[in-house]
Design goal:
The protein is an alpha/beta fold. It has a single domain, classed as D-tyrosyl-tRNA(Tyr) deacylase (D-tyrosyl-trna(Tyr) Deacylase, Chain: A, 3-Layer(bba) Sandwich). The protein is built from three helices and eight strands. The longest helix is centred in the last third of the chain and has 18 residues. The protein is globular and about 45 Å long.
Length: 146
């Protein structure tokens, strides 16, 4: 699994003109699934994200995690994280897991984030989504599961 984490002041996801998920201060988590990913990958990423120290303390140092500050999370499925652009001009998505495999794993990932103690909103799987966010920092981090 691969995630792109963006620290945000606020964020929302809109599908067909309706807001389906929104958060205040926290993390937007774009998540992609590849072949062979399993619950262990989702568990690793959920724990890593919840405890990753990317929020500033009073001294301005990255010493606080999402759990430490009561941050929220907005999870958005993103198969394009596995785009292969090495050949030609059109990305190839062969490394992205099929929706039948990816959707339950992303749902489990959301559940694991909640078990870690985060409040989680989501986008809508397989929908055309408009994601709005105010990146804080900006801070953007990529994490792959082992």
């Amino acid at each position: 699994m691969r995630v792109v984490i963006q620290r945000v002041q606020e964020a929302s996801v809109t599908v067909e003109g309706e807001v389906v998920g929104a958060i205040g201060r926290g993390l937007v988590i774009l998540v992609g699934v590849t072949h062979g990913d399993a619950e262990e990958d989702a568990r690793f990423l959920a724990q890593k994200i919840a405890t990753l120290r990317i929020f500033e303390d009073a001294a301005g140092k990255f010493n606080l995690s999402a759990l430490d500050i009561g941050a929220e999370a907005l999870v958005v499925s993103q198969f394009t994280l596995y785009a292969d652009t090495r050949r030609g001009r059109r990305p190839d998505f062969i490394d992205a897991a099929r929706p039948e495999a990816a959707e339950p794993l992303i749902e489990r990932f959301v559940g694991l984030l909640r078990e870690q103690g985060l409040t989680v909103a989501t986008g809508q799987f397989r929908a055309k989504m408009l994601v709005r966010l105010v990146n804080d920092g900006p801070v953007t981090i990529i994490v792959d599961s082992p």
